[in-house]
Amino acid sequence: MEKAIEVIGLVTHYGNREILKNISVSIPKGMTTVILGGSGCGKSTLLKHLIGLLKPTKGNILMFGKDITLMKEDELNEIRRKMGVLFQGAALLNSMTVADNVALPMREHTKLNESTIQIMVRMKLDLVDLSGFEKYYPSQLSGGMKKRAGLARAMALDPEMLFFDEPSAGLDPVTAAGLDELILKLRNVFKITIIVVTHELPSVFMIADYVIMLDAGEAIFSGTLDELRASDNPRIRMFLERQPEQETYSPEDYFRIIAGE
Question: What whole-number distance in Å separates Cα of residue 106 and Cα of residue 182?
Fold first, then answer.
């Protein structure tokens, strides 16, 4: 398995609270890797490290043969040009049309002339089934269309890696399934490395080639989807089978809770 990203001994704190606890995982090249886990497990924090938005307390992240944790901002920006990111809320600029949102990375980071940029914008919008919506503003789009427009912008510079932060958040099941199909198409057509942060099990089972599962800031699993299904780890079984966590109290604890102590 050729590695696209290698995370080694990653530790992160918010104040005095340890969020990521000595995480060491690898992300394979040319596959879709899902970072899975419940709310508050640290998966979005891990994503922010992978795209260089956060610096860890300690540890290393190797990407394109370099350690991005040691890079200065200008070096990181060079690496980021090889990445596309679809943030949870799509992060479109409301004052700009869909076409201008998609064109923005090209205008900022390339020397393409405007006519070429417009051709590229139409190609990217066609890729995500938004042809004809160039002149619309984000406020005129549905939630699913905003995600697709954000994805077109993430693909603007033909990235080698594509990151998704909770792509199905706020979408109905049919729209979410359509976005999953689009993720599969991008992987199959462009052979790029895709990293998806989610807790949505239907999406995981549909798109994942490889899975990393976090629990309370620790990596408790990394492997294929079949290996995840076969795992007998009780924390994994609880998550996959949607079992509520059982709280156990002693009689003394119970009476203190009832008494409001």
Answer: 22
Instruction: Please tell me the distance from the alpha carbon of residue 258 to that of residue 249, in angstroms, as a whole number.
Output: 12
Q: How many residues does the chain have?
A: 261
Q: What's the rounded Cα separation, in Å, for the pair 209 and 181?
A: 14
Six-digit token string for 170: 């706020």
CATH number at 1-82+203-261 = 3.40.50.300
Kindly state the tokens that stand for 139.
Answer: 């406020």
Which own/partner contact pairs does 136-145 have at CB distance under 8 Å and 24+ positions apart?
Answer: 136/97, 136/98, 137/94, 137/96, 137/97, 137/98, 138/90, 138/92, 138/93, 138/94, 138/98, 138/101, 139/94, 141/98, 142/175, 143/170, 143/171, 143/175, 144/171, 144/172, 144/175, 144/178, 144/179
Please tell me the pTM assigned to this model.
0.87
Report DSSP letters for 32-98, one per residue. Answer: EEEEE--TTSSHHHHHHHHTTSS--SEEEEEETTEEGGG--HHHHHHHHTTEEEE-TT----TTS-H
| Tens-binned pLDDT, residue by residue, of the chain (261 aa) | 799 999 999 999 988 899 999 999 999 999 999 999 888 889 999 999 999 999 999 999 999 889 999 999 989 988 988 999 998 878 899 999 999 999 999 998 889 999 999 999 999 999 999 999 999 999 999 999 999 999 999 999 999 999 999 998 888 999 999 999 999 999 998 999 999 999 889 999 999 999 999 999 999 999 999 999 999 999 999 888 877 665 544 566 545 545 544
Domain boundaries, the chain: 1-82+203-261
User: Across-strand partners of 104?
Assistant: none
CA atoms within 13 A on the CB side of 190: 19
